[in-house]
Amino acid sequence: MFFKASGLNTYYGLIHALQNISLTVDQGEIVCLLGRNGMGKSTTLKSIMGLVPPQSGAIDFQGRSIFQAPPYKVARVGVGLVPQERRIFPNLTVEENLLMGVKAGCPAPRDLEPWTLKRVYKHFGSLERRSRNKGSQLSGGEQQMLSMGRALMGNPLLLLVDEPGEGLAPLLVREVRDVLLQINRAGVSILLVEHNLKVAMSLAHRCYLLGKGFVAFEGTMSQLRARPDVMAKYLEVS
Ligand SMILES: Nc1ncnc2c1ncn2[C@@H]1O[C@H](COP(=O)(O)OP(=O)(O)OP(=O)(O)O)[C@@H](O)[C@H]1O
Ligand SMILES: [Mg+2]
Questions:
Q1: How far is the CA of 87 from the centre of ligand 2 (A)?
Q2: What is the rounded CA–CA span in Å between residue 95 and residue 98?
Q3: Which of 82, 109, 146, 200 makes the best surface tag, with the fewest CB within 10 Å?
Q4: Ligand nearest to the CA of 34
Q5: How many A from CA of 217 to the centre of ligand 1?
Q6: What is the spatial distance between Cα 238 and Cα 109, in angstroms, rounded to a whole number?
Q7: Residues in Cβ contact with 103 at an 8 Å cutoff, skipping those fewer than 6 apart
Q8: Which residues line ligand 1 (CB under 6 A)?
Q9: Is 85 helix (H, G, I), strand (E, B) or coil?
């Protein structure tokens, strides 16, 4: 299995935020993590990345354990994170922000094209126009693109993306969605936290639906579509 997390238990003090969470991502897949606010979606990504280490469970990536590994080691084996808060450096330029991603990542494997500034700019035209601007001068959408571009500069094989469309206008949500598809077609597997069910339906191969800290449903998007009862219970259906 390309990526497998089993039986993750993560705590914030006394709060048992993840209770036996298990999930897999196959090579080439886009897998969505769905669920209402506060269910543990971001905590799942942070646990995988080693930012909030799980107390028990197992995490294997390409046959090796990354369980309780520090974030820089997880990044070095090819797992990248685009955090919900974006976390760009406000005082660095767009280009400097992107170059920070190189240090935080790993070299591209021999059979994949490495990510360079030029390649990131090809996907994110607006970043090229803003390359000398400071991070703080960017719009919310541009910051999101920068956060994604920076993660890509680390040549991830598995990209964890946390609510990339949050706070963005519908046109930008579509742009982010298209870029995710292009990235996936270029060989990057994606675990995506997404609250917009329509976006999830149009992107993902499979999904996991979280209740309060546990996996309430897993299956393909069409299996989820066939379960209006599950959607009504665990999602905000618009
Ligand atoms: N740093 C923290 N300290 C204490 N509790 C936390 C912390 N971060 C998250 N939690 C709690 O853990 C639970 C899961 O939070 P998490 O951020 O993973 O949810 P989420 O599904 O990503 O929600 P959202 O859709 O709002 O981003 C929530 O009850 C939250 O209050
Ligand atoms: Mg979150």
A1: 14
A2: 5
A3: 109
A4: 1
A5: 20
A6: 42
A7: none
A8: 12, 15, 17, 35, 37-43, 84
A9: coil
**What CA–CA distance (Å, rounded) separates 128 from 141?**
14
Domains and CATH numbers, the chain: 3-234 (3.40.50.300)
Which string of DSSP letters, residue by residue, matches 147-169? HHHHHHTT--SEEEEE-TTTT--
Please tell me the distance between residue 191's alpha carbon and the centre of ligand 2 in angstroms: 13
Residue by residue, pLDDT tens for the chain (238 residues) are 999 999 999 999 999 999 999 999 999 999 999 999 999 999 999 999 999 999 999 999 999 999 999 999 999 999 999 999 999 999 999 999 999 998 888 888 778 889 999 999 999 999 999 999 999 999 999 999 999 999 999 999 999 999 999 989 888 899 999 999 999 999 999 999 998 898 999 999 999 999 999 999 999 999 999 999 999 999 976 5
Atom of ligand 1 at shortest distance to CA of 213? 14
Q: Which amino acid is at 134?
A: K
Candidate from 8, 11, 12, 196 with most ligand 1 atoms within 8 A of CB, to mutate: 12
Nearest-atom number in ligand 1 for the CA of 35 is 21
Which ligand places an atom closest to the C-alpha of 11? 1
**Nearest ligand to the CA atom of 36:** 1
